[in-house]
Each structure stands twice: as C-alpha cells, then as structure tokens.
Amino acid sequence: MVLNQASLKRDGVQDYVSLRATAIVLALYSVFILGFFIITPEVTFEVWQALFANTLVKVFTLLALVSIAVHTRIGLWQVLTDYIKSAALRAVLQFFLYALAFAYVAVGLFVLWGA
C-alpha cells in the first residue's frame, strides 16, 4: 500500500487522535476552572481579573478555545455527513457553523488578549 505523505486530506486516525487530544485539554481546563471556584472563597471581579492576568492562564484558555474549535469542526462534520444527505445543504450548513465556531474563537481571543 502506498501512502501519500504530502496529502492535506485528513483521515479517520487523525480525527480520532484530534478528538481525544482536544477532549483531554477541555477536561483539564474544566477541572482547572472548577478547582478555582472550589478553592476561592469569594469570586469577585478583581479575583477573576487577577486570575486571567496570569499569562499561563491566558495560554491555557487560548488552548481550550482552539480545542473547542477543532472538536466542533470534527464533530459537526461527522454529524452533518451522517444526517444531511443533500451535499449542497450540508455545504451551506458547514460553512455557517464553521464560521460561527471561528467567530467564537475570535471573540474569545479579543476578550482574552484585548484587555
């Protein structure tokens, strides 16, 4: 079997690994945020702002945002190809839903790094 290493198309193994990796990142981020709420006696704006002033928290949040986008892209592709049989309708839905996912990441970036 000949493998084309220059191909930009993804395959099932890449999707599988990407989904698992992004799920781990999102689980770790969820545990981090939950832990913050558990150990912080009173969450005020100043405490929240101090948390996100830390560069490591910003980077971890950015990683979580990108993980959400990748996870969403693969999940939407799988669901839409399974349930939407019309290729034209599927293409339109994928475009708008991918654009919405990108917008969420873009807004997250502006909120995270803009202030």
From TrEMBL:
The regions listed as transmembrane in this protein's record are 21-39, 51-70, 91-113
One GO CC term on file = plasma membrane
Q: How does it sit in the membrane?
A: Multi-pass membrane protein
Ligand binding (heme): H71
Q: Name one Pfam family in it.
A: Sdh_cyt
Q: Which cofactor does it need?
A: heme
Q: Keywords of this protein's UniProt record, alphabetized? A: Cell inner membrane, Cell membrane, Electron transport, Heme, Iron, Membrane, Metal-binding, Transmembrane, Transmembrane helix, Transport, Tricarboxylic acid cycle
What's a Gene Ontology MF term here?
metal ion binding
- In UniProt terms, what function does this protein have? Membrane-anchoring subunit of succinate dehydrogenase (SDH).
Q: What is this protein called?
A: Succinate dehydrogenase hydrophobic membrane anchor subunit
Taxonomic source organism: Rheinheimera nanhaiensis E407-8
